[in-house]
């Protein structure tokens, strides 16, 4: 990974230069399953340190981000608050260029004694971990970790509470910062093969991009072989490595490379020349700022996706439960089709009571409705009149059931349509279209409608600030507002919209309510078309074509009494067919 031990050394040096040692622990948050943010109070103000054990974005750096935190702090977060709350940071260290950063704290335990605690942040890809340690009798013991490692996971190294902390197995390699480079030629000759790969085998804590940059600096070829090194190229390589030491120590050359669309691709602690004109370089004075920028957007998207995953699963379970109930009701309704047969048999038996004799188990009589004959089963324990009444009772029962089932099925299908709209809103949040507050609103919507229960821990938790509607600007300059979920759709349509504003929604397809702000002007057709394209893009039909979108003035949109969130009725509407447009979505969005 690009975040190698050398780049982490730059980040640690920056923390030391920012005088974090001596700072007090002010706050500890765990915004996602594998991330911890520790706010330290220094003489110069508050500094936030991010520790992440995410397999694809593990990192340690200072951060300026303020991610939304869960309603109830996870157990590991509360444990860290108990162990480190109010403690003083006494040291930040790194063993050579290994990807393990230690944060040492002087803390006070439950009985008021001074104790030494440590956070060991291990940045090792899918094996990354954040481990809370305490020093007992001169030995570091595990209090707990953000990822527990049992014998089932690893037979080499366990990470469990109260066991002695052991460092991961370490290969014998050179530390670029203090090694003697005069023997580099001999070491490379012993390795052979590609130069970049050989350098990674010789030096600890360097990433592939740096190893390729070394090869490019020496031989102008990232795929150069060790056998290509003549004395002149070897001298260039040694000079470049010595110069790289200065970059690591001073962290003054941090570089991020992006493709021509601006998407970050890689980064290094030295200027990167190997890509030529294929990539665009961006220089950063702060290694933490680079790390924050490189991983930030992806981490936010992953965090929102992670939090919405459980919600989507819950919604799917609700949908399947209602769907199964509706299918059972439809089968029962099909069974009710036999009701007319019971009424017919009751009429025929009543007309033939004189023919029924004691002990008869059935009566065959003329079917005066359909023609032919019909055989009617009789209960020998009942009189002829009672047998007829039994048939009429069965008819009435099926008739009542048919009426009730028809209503229940219609109600169930409306519920399925509503849950489908909730699922669509949640899936758009999961793909990065919203935030933690949007997820919270969807969950509260399901609680308010009785589909899920509120956990006791959530009832007293502070609700996050509601996310505003998505805002867009049409090519004609009109503001377009888009609801993120059903609760916001209701607020947007019934409270925010003025009577002269235009309201849009996909026809019979779950999606967002759209409002075009008229602001006293006539809304042109081009703006209506763009708003309709946004409505199609922000709906379940976003992967289709020719999506029908209804539009009318907001004054003609009403909410029936007792209707579920997001459900409205409207009149005087027109319909337009449009194709969804992600390009228009990105182009017209107002940040």
Alpha-carbon distance between the two ends? 32 Å
User: What is the arithmetic mean of pLDDT?
Assistant: 89
Low-pLDDT regions: none
Helical segment tally?
14
CATH topology of the largest domain: Helix Hairpins
Would you count the extended β strands for me? 22
Radius of gyration: 35 Å
The side-by-side strand order for the widest beta sheet comes to 15-16-18-17-19-22
CATH class of the largest domain: Mainly Alpha
Give a written overview of the molecule.
The protein is α+β, with helices and mostly antiparallel strands and 591 residues long. The chain folds into 4 domains: 5-145, ibrinogen binding protein from staphylococcus aureus domain (ibrinogen binding protein from staphylococcus aureus fold, Roll), CATH 2.30.310.10; 181-285, no CATH class; 301-467, Helix Hairpins, CATH 1.10.287; 470-588, no CATH class. Helix content is 39%, strand content 21%. The protein is built from 14 helices and 22 strands. The strands form 6 sheets. Strands 15-16-18-17-19-22 form a 6-stranded antiparallel β-sheet. The protein has a 5-stranded antiparallel β-sheet with strand order 5-6-7-8-9, covered by helices on one side. β3 (45-52) and β4 (59-63) form a beta hairpin. α1 runs parallel beside α6, α5 crosses α6 (231-250) and α7 runs antiparallel to α9 (384-433). The protein is elongated. The two termini are 32 Å apart. The model has no long low-confidence stretch (mean pLDDT 89).
